[in-house]
Design brief:
alpha+beta, Double-stranded beta-helix, globular, 275 residues, binds succinic acid, three-stranded antiparallel β-sheet, eight-stranded mixed β-sheet
C-alpha cells in the first residue's frame, strides 16, 4: 500500500509540513491528488530530508503540471536538468528580499513553484510566505469592491534597479510587461487573492500616478502582516512546493555566504479578475 500523507500545520493560514511520504519514489495518483490538495489548502507544502537529485526533483514537480521557464532567469536554463535550475542566490538576494509572486510580469505567471535547499549559510537565508487570500479578506468591503475593478501593470523595472542593472528594451518590452487584475480569481479554488506585489507591479492602470502610488504602498505594507505570513528556516534537502497564484514569498537577505537552491516553475494561466 502507498504511504499516506500526514500534515502538520505551521500557522492557521499558511504552510504545512508533510510527513510519511518519500517523494524521491514514483507517486501513485492518490498521493499526487493529496499533495495537490494540501498545496491548494495551505499554500506551501514542505518536505524534509528527501533524497532527491536535480533530475528526480524535476520528475516529482512534473506530477503537478508542465514545467516552464522563469522569463527573468532565462539565462540560467542553459544548464537546467528537466527545467530545474540551480542557483547561488547571493547574486539575487537584493531583488528577492521583497514580497513577490515569481514571474508576475509574464502573461501567464507560474502556477506552482518548488525550491530545494542544496547548500546553506550557517545561519540566515530563511524564506517567508504570505497568504494573499487572507490579505484580501482582511480588507474592508468598500476597498475590496474598488480593487476588484482595477488592473495593474507588471514589469521588470524595479528589479533591474534593485540589481543595479540599467533598464533596457530587452527587459522592459513585449513579454516582460503585462497588465493583470489587482484581484485575481484563483482558477482552481475560485477564491479571490490580492495579485499586486512590490517587485513587479509598477502602477494601477485606472488611477492617476499619485493615487496608484498611495494605494500600492498601502497594499504592500498590508501583505506583510504577521497574521498572513510564515518564515521557514531551511535545512539541506528540504523541498518547498507552493501555489504562486495566491501566496507570495520573500527571501531574507541576511547572509553573505554561498546559498544554493534548485528551483522549478510550473506553467500557469493568464490571470483573470472578478469582473
Ligand atoms: C525566489 O524569490 O525565487 C528565491 C527565493 C529564495 O531565495 O528563498
Amino acid at each position: 500500500m502507498a504511504m499516506q500523507l500526514e500534515l502538520e500545520k505551521i500557522t492557521p493560514v499558511v504552510g504545512v509540513i508533510a510527513h510519511g511520504i518519500d517523494i524521491a519514489k514514483p507517486l501513485v495518483p492518490e498521493q499526487v491528488a493529496a499533495i495537490r490538495n494540501a498545496v491548494l489548502e495551505n499554500g506551501v507544502l514542505f518536505f524534509r530530508d528527501q533524497g532527491l537529485t536535480q533530475e528526480t526533483m524535476g520528475g516529482f514537480v512534473g506530477n503537478f503540471g508542465e514545467p516552464c521557464n522563469d522569463p527573468f532567469l532565462i539565462s540560467n536554463y542553459a544548464n537546467a536538468a528537466g527545467r530545474v535550475i540551480e542557483m547561488n542566490t547571493v547574486r539575487y538576494r537584493k531583488a528577492t528580499a521583497v514580497w513577490h509572486y515569481d514571474s508576475s510580469l509574464a502573461a501567464t505567471p507560474a502556477a506552482l513553484m518548488a525550491l530545494r535547499a542544496i547548500e546553506l549559510p550557517p545561519v540566515g537565508g530563511d524564506t517567508c510566505w504570505s497568504n494573499m487570500y487572507a490579505a484580501y479578506d482582511a480588507l474592508s468591503a468598500p476597498l475590496r469592491d474598488m480593487l476588484d475593478r482595477l488592473t495593474a501593470e507588471h514589469s521588470a523595472f524595479r528589479v533591474l534597479k534593485l540589481m543595479g542593472i540599467n533598464a533596457s528594451d530587452e527587459y522592459l518590452d513585449g513579454e516582460m510587461r503585462n497588465i493583470h487584475p489587482v484581484v485575481r480569481v484563483h482558477p482552481e479554488t475560485g477564491r479571490k487573492a490580492l495579485f499586486v506585489n512590490e517587485l513587479w507591479t509598477q502602477k494601477i492602470v485606472e488611477l492617476d500616478d499619485q493615487e496608484s502610488e498611495a494605494i500600492l504602498a498601502m497594499l504592500f505594507a498590508h501583505v506583510q502582516s504577521p497574521s498572513f505570513t510564515m518564515r521557514w528556516r531551511w535545512r539541506k534537502n528540504d523541498l518547498a512546493l507552493w501555489d504562486n497564484r495566491a501566496f507570495m514569498h520573500y527571501a531574507v537577505k541576511d547572509y553573505t555566504e554561498t546559498r544554493v537552491l534548485q528551483k522549478a516553475l510550473l506553467k500557469g494561466d493568464r490571470p483573470y479578475g472578478p469582473n
